[in-house]
Design a protein that fits this description.
alpha+beta, two-stranded antiparallel sheet, globular
């Protein structure tokens, strides 16, 4: 399931690895999201959508 970073809430658990353009995960499956994780994902998403 794909979710836009704006829909994330602290306490959510990632069901799958979050990957960018490489095979290396940005965040691993099972990560329980905090405000910092969400901030990082939003930053990554914003940067990726402008390239």
């Amino acid at each position: 399931m794909r979710v836009h970073p704006s829909q994330l809430t602290p306490g959510y658990t990632l069901l799958h690895d979050v990957k960018g353009k490489t095979n290396d995960p940005i965040m691993k499956q099972g990560t329980i999201l905090t405000d910092l994780h969400i901030k990082i994902l939003k930053s990554f998403f914003d940067r990726g959508s402008t390239s």
